[in-house]
Amino acid sequence: MILVNTDYISGKNLEMLGLVKGSTIQSKNIGKDITQSFKTLVGGELKAYNEMMNEARALATKRMVEEAESLGADAVVNIRYASSAVMQGAAEVIAYGTAVKFTN
């Protein structure tokens, strides 16, 4: 499966199959949440939340790809990510794009 954030793939003619998406809501355990809140007092990178968001993006991407594969897609173009806080310490991540099939 080819994944790109452009609306084309060089050298390929594309048939658009439709919008595909994947999402997840992730949170850290209460212990990590407390230690990260102390980190906001002194500044610096919040590594536990960084890991959480990386895991969430990977899972959302995997679910988007699974949806594209179920449509018989060869690639997903114009991929975008969005996130939002659901509650303190939890975030939703969505990955979405257009599933396409190669015609040449």
Automatic annotation (TrEMBL):
Gene3D superfamilies: Hypothetical protein apc22750. Chain B (3.30.110.70). It holds the Pfam family YbjQ_1. It comes from Roseburia intestinalis L1-82. This is UPF0145 protein RIL182_02949. PANTHER family: UPF0145 PROTEIN SCO3412, UPF0145 PROTEIN YBJQ. Belongs to the UPF0145 family. InterPro entries: UPF0145_dom_sf, UPF0145_YbjQ-like. Signal peptide: none annotated.
